[in-house]
Design brief:
The chain is an alpha/beta fold. It has one domain: Lumazine/riboflavin synthase (Rossmann fold, 3-Layer(aba) Sandwich), CATH 3.40.50.960. The protein contains 5 helices and 4 strands. The chain has a 4-stranded parallel beta sheet, sandwiched between helices.
Length: 153
């Protein structure tokens, strides 16, 4: 019998002193804008001041790691949230993009010792993307929680 793993609910903590960067892809903006809404709501719940949130838009998901690096260099941040959407197509393009982006973020986290919440969704369809970018299943919110938790360690 397989065990089911459930994520424990996370209670908002006091993150009022944190400085947070958000790097967001303009490609699939109808989805990424929803992810950003989830991220902003979570930041508000955790007490992050609006003046301490720095949003940086990039053309697509592939450019997210470089956008994050520029944020790291420009601002003194405690964490970054990366938001993007790479929808599966008829080729393996989505796999290459998602792999490159995730490797880029791992390198940034380790090289700069800064947490990056991975909010780059990789759905099979637009319908799946909509589900993952709204309401209780908003991956922008989940990525923000992960980044904040790591910053508060």
């Amino acid at each position: 019998m397989q065990r089911k793993h459930y994520a424990l609910p996370v209670r908002a903590k006091d993150a009022s002193k944190l400085r947070v960067g958000i790097v967001i892809s303009r490609f699939n903006a109808d989805i990424t804008d929803n992810l950003l809404c989830g991220a902003r709501e979570t930041l508000e719940q955790w007490g992050v001041k609006k003046a301490n949130v720095h949003v940086f838009h990039v053309p697509g998901s592939f450019e997210l790691p470089l956008g994050a690096l520029k944020l790291i260099r420009k601002k003194k941040l405690d964490c970054i949230v990366a938001l993007g959407c790479v929808i599966k197509g008829e080729t393996k393009h989505d796999e290459y993009i998602a792999s490159a982006v995730s490797h880029g973020f791992i390198r940034l986290m380790l090289d700069h010792a800064i947490p990056i919440g991975f909010g780059v969704i990789t759905p099979n369809s637009l319908a799946q993307a909509k589900v993952r970018s709204r309401g209780k299943t908003n991956k922008g919110s989940e990525a923000t929680i992960a980044a904040l938790e790591m910053a508060l360690l």
